[in-house]
Amino acid sequence: MTKAQQATISAAIAAAEDGTTGRIAVREIPDRSVDAFERAKREFGRIGLHRHEPANGALILVAPKARRFAIVGDRALHERVGDAFWDDLVKESQPFFARGETEAGILYAVARLGEVLHAHFAEPGTGLA
Fold this sequence. Notes:
By secondary structure, this protein is of the alpha+beta class. It has helices spanning 3-17, 36-46, 75-98, 102-120, and strands spanning 23-28, 57-63, 68-73.
């Protein structure tokens, strides 16, 4: 990704997290062949999102050369949104990545994650919940 794309994604993450206790991370990997979900789970632990309390972090992992991606969320986030949310998010994001529109796919997923963070994990006193 270009620096401009990285800046756009960083701004979207900041907006999605603002006023919430949640955290969102994005990792891009250069692999041409990868099990994106398994790699995302490893990256989630490697970067320490599992240590973020209240366990409501999410990681978006993209492998543009393989046109693959995965999204994983921590336990409290998953408990609030359930399997249907993750299934829908993957289905809705997939066309972007399939077309090679990595930035658009990431921005879409970040926005949807921001919606659930604001709905379920607003910081006390923000009036967002």
